[in-house]
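WARN  no MSA supplied for this record, continuing single-sequence
INFO  ligand: iron/sulfur cluster
INFO  echoing inputs
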Amino acid sequence: MAVLGRDEIINYLNGGNDDGLYSTADSLREYSFGREVYLRAIVEFSNVCNKKCNYCGLRAANSKVSRYRMDVADIIESANLAAEAGARTIVLQSGDDFSYSPDRIEEIISGIKGAHDVAVTLSLGDRSAAEYEHWFKCGADRCLLKLETTNPDIYGKIRCGEDFHKRLKLLRSLKQIGYEVGSGIIVGLPDYTVEQLADDLLFLSDLGLDMIAAGPFIPHPDTPFSSAAAGGIDLSLRFTALARLLNPFSNIPATSALDSFDPEGREKGLQRGCNVIMPSVTPVSKRRNYNIYPGKNAVSVDVADSVSRAEELIRALGFVASASKGSSRRMNNVE
Ligand code: 5AD
Ligand code: SF4
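INFO  complex generated
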């Protein structure tokens, strides 16, 4: 495993050696995954959220959002269409919307897993460890719970008083339960420092994550961070390339937020150490309202089109859209 000191990381984050960083990250991705890129189809089934994160367009206080909740049958239908189009992982994502009871989430998991041989990832926010344990027993395979920053003070500020240690405890519980676990941060939040980003990288790498997600901050006009500067694509690409150096076998997505800066943002990510893309397969009538940041889900395509566009993007770079579920390689490859 690559060993990098904090000072070296800071130098890379400052753009000290982009060519060296990106080519090493690309070689490591190739070593760990060959030509295969994993495609994860996301069903954003509810944009209702009870939280007030200062960076996010879905925050409860934003009355301009047209809120929706998909019913169980429609969620399963979107997942099935994505699986039929070739997706081998379905990510179920929502705001912190606790109106979905554990039984309803169970119904969704069972409905999807009963119809298709796919992995199911839960991205449902701060539900209890007991609920997550129940859903694991129902067949859910993975969880995504982002820390957004690994600094407890900053966490409290950007997430409006939420407790970092509670979130971290939940993340550790998910691992204990047996899930493959993903986490990550937003790169370039207001008042960020490269020193803090270096600490984020070291902290996340210490957690032994199966997936590390990091995308650039994009100011949303209807949030308290509306007039803050955007995070920047280069900083974000450096962050994910460094995450690859520190975590050769973890899954690292080229996030959709990259595309908000550069139409080829995700392509650049895949050429710089990332090995996953996550197209939205939320129905056309809803997807525009899943407006976490400006530009999110701007393209209006149906489920099958969304999967085939993602496959096309992968092929155009000379990669192969993996036919496997893309389970974590960390377990079998102790770094
Ligand atoms: N810019 C970039 N990423 C954001 N997210 C939320 N708001 C923003 C924003 N303004 C990310 C967070 C969250 C995920 C769903 O989207 O990391 O976990
Ligand atoms: Fe809600 Fe997640 Fe947005 Fe925070 S980041 S407001 S929890 S959807």
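Strands lie at 36-46, 89-94, 119-123, 142-144, 180-187, 211-216, 276-277, 320-321.
INFO  checksum written, moving to next record
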